[in-house]
Amino acid sequence: MNCTSNFTLLKGAISCLDKAIMTDMDLDETQSVPLPAAAEEEPFLGMTDIFLVCMILGLTIYWWFFRDRKAATPQQLVKPLTVVPLSTASRDPSFINRMKKTKKSVAVFYGSQTGTAEEFAGRLARDCIRYGIKGFPVDPEECEMDELTRMGEVENSFALFCLATYGEGDPTDNAQEFFDWLQEDHDLSGLRYAVFGLGNKTYEHFNAMGIFVDKRLEELGAVRLCKAGMGDDDANIEEDFVTWRETLWPAVCEHFGIESVGEEGVMRQYTLETHEDINQNEIFTGEPTRLKSLTEQKPPYDAKNPYMSSVKVNRELHKGGDRSCMHIEFDISGSRIRYEAGDHVAVFPTNDPAMVEEIAHLLKVNLDDVFTLNNVDDEAAKKHPFPCPTTYRTALLHYVDIAHPPRTNVLHDIIDYASDPKDREFLTRITSSAGKKEFAEWVTDSHRDILQILKDLPSLKPPVDHLCELMPRLHARYYSISSSPKEHPERIHITAVLVDYHSKIGRRIKGVATNWLATKIPNGPDGPRVPIYVRKSPFRLPFKTTTPVIMIGPGTGLAPFRGFIQERYHAKMEGKPIGDTVLFSGCRKKSEDYIYQEELEGYEGDGTLSQLNMAFSRDQAQKVYVQHLIKQKSETVWNLLNDGAHVYVCGDARHMAHDVDMVLHDIVEERGGMTQSQAKDFIKGLRNKGRYACDVWS
Length: 698
Prior knowledge:
alpha/beta
């Protein structure tokens, strides 16, 4: 049909419609004049007919003018949103189905907060190969844990659990639902299991999660294969794990009637893929998961999607001495990030570029080469050890922890890359069961990182991609927020001591995060950017502002209490009554490292702080610490406890928190006239009621 004929049809349709409308209009104009019934005539077209004609006419016009436009425009006006996760494969959440499909009989579950438990789970899964069986690591958050009741469906199956304890005896974030599920009754008679817990003896609830799961699984009918292992991160958790593993596998062999099929070989979990010609927009440059997430920001912000915050303030708090403590303020205006006093902020650091360059020089690596590490197991949940494709520079700067002393499995798997027989013999010896003590002395206690090891063993030249596979991930560092949103709604403050010291072998050890943050000095209106997100904490002031509080935090343990004091000051300025607010803090020397001195003395002066008790440990011949001041104020402390006071402790777990706890027990026993057992129950009651909270680290 040509253009002329189309136009003729269109003209005819319009003429017809025009007549119909005029007829209808004539009727409308004369309808008030009554006519004899015989004289009434039907209109040429009714309103329904007119509507249909208009619709047909509109469609005809649309088809005529727009029929060729779609064909001539291959691009869509709006591009579809493309999300690039770390693993793009859709998976069946049923780990039982996966075990049946892939003929695997061992599921290794991990509850991990910093990555260590996940690393141990991966090593146990690889151990299975030595015994002619197949295993795989499983994140309990990504599967249906009630399928543990179906483990009996898989022949000769068993489950291993590597579970870290977090905070005050709590499960890790990814094991919380599993913990809740275990509170209910289930039939686990078809399950065989073993547990390795990861904890720290300086904390009161040492390995609470591992102990609970080990006991609870047995109560639900499961069969324990061997005694639970209890790893202590305050001592040597690597040695604890290796020792437990040496008891696990003989027990498994005995139970299932299997035996080792030979020495454990070096079997890589990932294969290397290089990219010669790749679109730069497809390369990860440090993003935790989503490609371009650090430059194309979209809330909400969390561990997988941090916010690029501008550093507005970075100032020194110490007045002298050879140490440094930084006060840093992160801008969160317009980010929709909300926080409360007592929360933590996570900071994603970057490794030292000079260290990366040295590794590249020793291993003769082009840091700008682009590569991908692909999991050899097509069914694996984790397709890559970190976001890929990326460059070696990005991997070593952002994704791999090159500053932490490597574990035995790392050195064991790179033995064959040493060309000198003496180096190979040495690595073989210290990574064997008999060499645990020597490994601890040479690697762990001396804090030898991978760069120093490569220097000390010059014939050792592992491929950089294999190192990237073996080394643990570089994780975020957490800091107690030292501000209140009531006083600083658009900024998050942190208080951080610069980690910089010398190891036993004389090497200078620099903390990854604090030394990186020290370089983030604002030099303009925008300031340097840092990836952050807020992690909620149960460390909270009482709801009632009149409830008394006792805060104990020397050094940077003062950080969350600065936020608490700001909260009370804000309430006071609003005219609200506030209860007794007592602070016990301290430092080495008043003239050098008394942080926030002017602020604290100002709060004491205006009545926000009822008491400011500072211990300056090295300003006199005999050292004085916060626990000594608490002991001196025992009557005040006891009276406040009787008035319903909440007690908060923040800082060093190994010494300070333990000593403070002992002093509190003594005060309750002496001032309350209680026996040692009664005092213990009293303190336990405070904890159970949420009146005694600790935010400590080792």
